[in-house]
Task: structure prediction
Amino acid sequence: MAEPFTLDDYRSIIRGGLDLGYEFATFDSPHTGPLAEGVIYLRHDVDRTPEGAALLARLAAEEGVRGTFFFLLRTESYNVATRRCVDIIRQISGAGHAVGLHFNHLEHPTPSDESERVRQIQKEARLLADVTGAGISCFSMHNPDDSLRIDVPGFINAYAPRFFDDALYISDSNRKWKPVHPLEGLSPKHAGVVQILIHPEWHGSNFDSERQALIHHVVSVAGRVMDEDNAQNRALQERPLSFSEIADSLSRLDP
Result:
């Protein structure tokens, strides 16, 4: 087995499923009818790294399978309306993958009833479709609350019972495979639904821990903001910001 949370490991998960006869389906067009073999829903919740999502999308396409990539509309980590993100989402969609909404309820007031939460999800899905040009017909919940299995007319919930309660659900949340690594959970005798949840930020680099991966993400975001400021701020044209200067400033801050 490949080293966990590497690109080789990601490929091995896909190839292991194919070798066992599984079909791969997406949440925007789920498998219908009786299952002669098992079906895998390869789900990617893009919490932090659109670039990481694009990399996994390319690898999955090279293996001949389609996955679903769920993007946050409201997050401090990236902005889906920027040209960078729109291009990435179009690239992922152009490779044959499905794109959906990753809904973060923490960015909304507590709804008075379920119908209000439904409207929140529908509104975000429409906004995501408008700014990216992607067809949005499915969603997943970020840091799920009691509305985990909510039914939203016109949209497919990745936590609907047929994909979650009635399925084998394997997740890499917090950079730990639960309940087991996918290659240990897949079986040629499992003629049913398997959902594999992947967070792109954990895959593709040889991080030793979740903390190391998160530090890498924070540094990457800071570098992107710094590059943008250096390019667009006239005051920085002659003397651009650098990481050493930022580190020095941070060291002077009160703990």
Summary: The chain has two domains: 7-202, 210-252. The CA atoms of residues 230 and 236 lie 5 Å apart.
